[in-house]
Amino acid sequence: MTPFDDSPPMASTTHPADALVLTGVHVRRGDSAVLHGIDLAFPAGRITAIVGRSGVGKSTLIATLNGLIRPEAGTIAVPNVGRLDDPGPLREHRRRTATIFQDHALIDRLSALDNVLLGLADQRHPLSLLPWPEEFRRRAAQALDEVGLLHRANARTSTLSGGERQRVGVARALVRRPNLLLGDEPFASVDPTLVRQMSAEFRSLVARNGLTVVLVLHQLETARLLADRIVGLVEGRVGFVGPPDQFNAEAEARIFPSPVLAVPTE
Ligand SMILES: Nc1ncnc2c1ncn2[C@@H]1O[C@H](COP(=O)(O)OP(=O)(O)OP(=O)(O)O)[C@@H](O)[C@H]1O
After folding, report:
1. Which residue, 2, 42, 74, 88, could crosslink 25 as a Cys pair with Cβ 3.0–4.6 Å?
2. How far apart are CA 46 and CA 124, in angstroms?
3. Straight-line distance from the first to the last Cα atom of the chain, in angstroms, rounded to the nearest whole number
4. Element (H, E) at 26
5. Which H or E element spans position 207?
6. pLDDT per residue over 119-151, tens digit each?
7. Residue 156 DSSP symbol
8. What number of other Cβ atoms are within 10 A of residue 105's Cβ?
9. This prediction's pTM
10. Distance between CA 91 and CA 98 in Å, rounded?
11. Which of 105, 99, 115 is CA-nearest to residue 184?
12. Which residues, in sequence order, are bridge partners of residue 47?
């Protein structure tokens, strides 16, 4: 198996080229069983898009990968780190993981640079009144440079365009120097034309930084553009795993079945 093999994941085997391996993962939220026995490996250095209809468990899967939700059964293994049901590996996994958000979760009255620095907030005392350490400021400037926004570092975030705000959100994730980048609909508030323009840039940024990326994407078109691999969920189960060019009409009908319309009776 090469690092770029897209054959179905061997969930019981941890391959060195996998960044995360889920085996028989069941997740419950409140009274509902949401994910049912997920077997899935996420290849290192690749972009995986999670797609599926509303309510199938996409956000739940991302929160589970993040370590925010603990499965009621099954395991999540991070090669060279450990299993996420152990507190030590879980802490290390969370340190290596960054998240990008749909609304970018930026503070408008702060500068772009200060918003990026917030990505490091957990690395200093929460009540610190001291200025950010020079090393952190240098890292934040580097992250802004990485997304092509260094020239806007001191601009108030409220004056930035939608695409620029999205880049600040990505820089705030990058400043943590993560191995794993997770996103729940990170491009939802960016104009589709802009997403098309940014996708090549995003892909080369991911390759430059050696990131493993998992994104929930509502737009299939965006998933095809951005991802190396698509995971389609149906009712909390994996219904498709493969490269975008294999996500054909049959797969699309399986992952996005037409709603069954009730036939009115007299
Ligand atoms: N905090 C919660 N407590 C109880 N049930 C929840 C909670 N969050 C989500 N659920 C339920 O879990 C199921 C899956 O939700 P989830 O948000 O993972 O789906 P999704 O595929 O991301 O949906 P969407 O595309 O609409 O965002 C849904 O039935 C939802 O109602």
Report:
1. 74
2. 31
3. 59
4. strand 18-29
5. helix 192-208
6. 998 777 666 667 788 999 999 999 999 999 999
7. B
8. 12
9. 0.87
10. 13
11. 99
12. 213
Give 100 Cα–ligand 1 centroid separation in angstroms: 19
Question: What stretch of H or E contains 212?
Answer: strand 212-216
Measured CA to CA, the distance from residue 52 to residue 145 in angstroms comes to: 34
- Backbone φ/ψ region at 209: left (φ over 0), alpha (ψ -120 to 50), beta: alpha
Tens digits of residue pLDDT in 143-175: 999 999 999 999 999 999 888 998 999 999 999
**Residue 75: what are its φ and ψ, rounded to 5°?**
-130, 155
**Which amino acid appears at position 25 of this protein?**
V
Judge if the beta carbon of residue 159 lies within 6 A of ligand 1. no
Cα 181 to averaged position of ligand 1 atoms, centre (Å): 21
Handedness of CA 106, 108, 109, 112 (dihedral sign): positive
**Where are the domains positioned within the chain?**
106-177
Q: DSSP character for 261?
A: P
CB 58 near ligand 1, within 6 Å: yes
Q: How far apart are CA 23 and CA 136, in angstroms?
A: 37
Closest residue by Cα to atom 2, ligand 1, is: 29
Q: Is the ipTM of this complex over 0.85?
A: yes
Q: Rounded to the nearest whole angstrom, what is the distance from the C-alpha of residue 200 to the centroid of ligand 1?
A: 31
Which amino acid type is present at position 42? F
∠ CA 194-100-68 to the nearest 5 degrees? 150
Identify the H or E element spanning 40: strand 32-43
Taking alpha carbons only, the member of 143, 150, 194 closest to residue 173 is: 143
